[in-house]
Amino acid sequence: MPITVNLDVMLIKRKMKSKELAQKIGITTANLSILKSGKAKAIRFSTLEAICEALECQPSDILEYKP
Amino acid sequence: MKNNTTLLRVITYVVLISTTSILINDIQEFNFEQFKSFASWSKSVNKNENWFTSKNAIMWSYYIIITALFFWRGYLIYGFTHFVSILKEIEKENYFSQKNINYFKKIGNVFITYTINVLVLQFLLSVIQGASFNFFKELKNEFTFLIPCGLAFYLLAEIFKRAKTLKEENDLTI
Question: Which domain of life is it from (chain A) (predicted)?
Answer without folding.
Answer: Bacteria
